[in-house]
């Protein structure tokens, strides 16, 4: 999970490249649920008050990382396949 959020944060630093893949949050969540069966699996706060979220489906294996800006616009940061939910303990100082 931390690796995915780190990757998403790196992508967020290149924000203008993703600006064309943005829509109101409700629309994005509806599309992810209806088209891919994805639901929110994780959440965090990124730069400039953006909310990073990980959506995924255990049934389809798809996943999507989004960033929602303070103005309510949600942008797609990354997506892929073969999502697996892990329940690993985080060890202090672990760089992963």
Give a written overview of the molecule.
Strands 1-5-4-3-2 form a 5-stranded antiparallel sheet. It contains 2 helices and 5 strands. It is flat and about 35 Å long. By secondary structure, the protein is α+β, with helices and mostly antiparallel strands. It is 25% helix and 31% strand. The longest helix is centred in the N-terminal third of the chain and has 12 residues, at 2-13. The protein has helices spanning 2-13, 25-36; strands spanning 22-24, 39-45, 51-56, 63-68, 73-80. Strand 2 and strand 3 (51-56) form a beta hairpin. It has one domain (2-14, 22-80). The model is unreliable at 3-18 (pLDDT under 50).
How would you summarize the topology of this molecule?
Elements: H1 2-13, E1 22-24, H2 25-36, E2 39-45, E3 51-56, E4 63-68, E5 73-80
Antiparallel strand pairs: 1-5, 2-3, 3-4, 4-5
Briefly say what this structure is.
The protein is an alpha+beta fold. It is built from two helices and five strands, in the order H-E-H-E-E-E-E. The protein has one domain.
Approximate shape? flat
- Supply the helix-strand structural class: alpha+beta
Q: Can you give the mean pLDDT?
A: 81
> What's the number of domains?
1
Low-confidence stretches: 3-18
> Sheet bearing the most strands, described?
5 strands, antiparallel
- Cα-atom Rg, whole angstroms? 13 Å
Helix content: 25-40%
Keywords:
single chain, flat, 31% strand, 96 residues, 2 helices, alpha+beta, five-stranded antiparallel β-sheet
């Amino acid at each position: 999970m931390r690796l995915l959020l780190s990757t998403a944060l790196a992508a967020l630093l290149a924000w203008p490249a993703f600006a064309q893949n943005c829509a109101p949050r409700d629309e994005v969540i509806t599309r992810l649920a209806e088209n891919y069966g994805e639901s929110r699996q994780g959440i965090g706060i990124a730069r400039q008050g953006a909310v990073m979220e990980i959506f995924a489906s255990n049934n389809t294996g798809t996943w999507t990382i989004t960033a929602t800006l303070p103005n309510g616009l949600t942008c797609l940061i990354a997506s892929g396949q073969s999502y697996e939910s892990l329940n690993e303990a985080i060890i202090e100082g672990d760089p992963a």
